[in-house]
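Saturday, quiet lab. Running sequence design on the structure tokens for the scaffold JK sent over.
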């Protein structure tokens, strides 16, 4: 693996590390920033951020890898990468219509950690930790160890359920971040799934290539390759997240035969304009990642400062479709509040009912969205 040591890095990020240490995922995790005082060695916190940092941990812990912090411009208080990972006071406010479980997953949990909502595929939540916590996290209720609620997981019960349901052919591993599990643990989970004859297709949803590219070693890639067909969906929101180390990590996955798609969230102040979105998708394609979904920001409790209107999202898609490479245009979707699942957002599919917005999911059921725009 080539070694990156951004020599221009601030000493508070390097923390005395050698080149080898900086490029070691365990070093990055052990030296992650989890306290306001540590951040202050690198950037000046605003009054808003300082206040939020005092109590945000009861909802969602603070954690940022030195790698990701190194991509943030400390001189820019509204740096789009900073806004995603450093809490602001609005995060502590619960707005009307917001939910702790915006996608209604708990109701579709058929075994602890296994969400079976769609006919032929299910979501397996197999880790409650991430390398860095995103402040708009849709599963903040159960990741990071911050809140009192814990991610339920009973792997034996989940596997038994999958075995007993031959209609399942596709299992999506998510969390938290599955790539924070050890290679041994991941191999064990993937092996148990691969042994089930009706499971054709495996997927992993992860932000590790962005937050902790050092974790994407040849050894990990070779192990994942054994479980083909296995696709990876990479969560990425801004072209600047795709630095040379992330590009190399993604390239290593592709070179090992692992197809990559992306998932992005439309976020106010981060990527809510056409030029930023276009740059993101172009950069993803150059990293050999096919844009898959652009999510409308879920109405999770404490996320109002991140949410755009649906119209803004539709305008962005209109600015891309036909104007640039078709591969660079993701599907703009909403995870319908109350368990409706993912529904495509297009000018035709967004319904206006009683002055509010509603969408129709693949079963034809109508779900209301808690906002007029
Ligand atoms: C997103 C999701 C899936 C996968 O959906 P695709 O549209 O096939 O990518 C499966 N199960 C649940 C519960 C999900 O939220």
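Result came back. Writing it out in full:
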């Amino acid at each position: 693996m080539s070694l990156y040591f951004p020599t221009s890095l601030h000493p508070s990020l390097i923390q005395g590390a050698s080149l080898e240490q900086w490029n070691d995922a365990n070093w990055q995790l052990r030296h992650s920033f989890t306290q306001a005082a540590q951040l202050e060695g690198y950037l000046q916190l605003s009054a808003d951020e300082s206040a939020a940092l005092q109590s945000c941990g009861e909802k969602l812990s603070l954690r940022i890898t030195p790698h990701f912090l190194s991509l943030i411009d400390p001189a820019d208080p509204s740096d789009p990468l900073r806004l995603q990972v450093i809490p602001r006071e609005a995060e502590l406010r619960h707005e009307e219509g917001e939910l702790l479980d915006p996608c209604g997953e708990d109701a579709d949990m058929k075994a602890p950690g296994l969400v079976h909502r769609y006919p032929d595929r299910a979501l397996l939540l197999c880790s409650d930790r991430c390398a860095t916590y995103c402040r708009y996290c849709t599963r903040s209720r159960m990741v990071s160890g911050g809140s009192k609620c814990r991610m339920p997981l009973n792997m034996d019960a989940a596997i038994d359920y999958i075995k007993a349901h031959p209609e399942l052919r596709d299992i999506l591993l998510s969390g938290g971040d599955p790539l924070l599990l050890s290679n041994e643990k991941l191999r064990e989970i993937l092996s148990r799934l691969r042994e089930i004859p009706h499971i054709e297709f495996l997927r992993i949803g992860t932000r590790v290539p962005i937050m902790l590219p050092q974790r994407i070693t040849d050894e990990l890639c070779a192990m994942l390759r054994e479980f083909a067909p296995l696709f990876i969906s990479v969560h990425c929101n801004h072209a600047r997240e795709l630095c040379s180390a992330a590009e190399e990590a993604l390239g290593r996955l592709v070179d090992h035969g692992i197809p990559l798609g992306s998932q992005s969230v439309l976020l106010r102040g981060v990527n809510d304009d056409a030029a930023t979105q276009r740059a993101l998708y172009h950069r993803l394609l150059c990293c050999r990642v096919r844009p898959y979904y652009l999510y409308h920001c879920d109405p999770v409790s404490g996320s109002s400062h991140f949410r755009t209107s649906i119209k803004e999202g539709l305008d962005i898609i209109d600015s891309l479709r036909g104007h640039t490479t078709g591969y660079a245009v993701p599907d703009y979707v909403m995870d319908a509040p109350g368990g409706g699942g993912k529904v495509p957002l297009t000018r035709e599919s967004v319904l206006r009912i009683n002055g509010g917005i509603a969408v129709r999911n693949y079963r034809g059921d109508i779900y209301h969205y808690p906002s007029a725009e």
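Notes for JK: The first strand starts at residue 109 and ends at 111. The radius of gyration is 20 Å. Ask whether to fix the surface positions before the next round.
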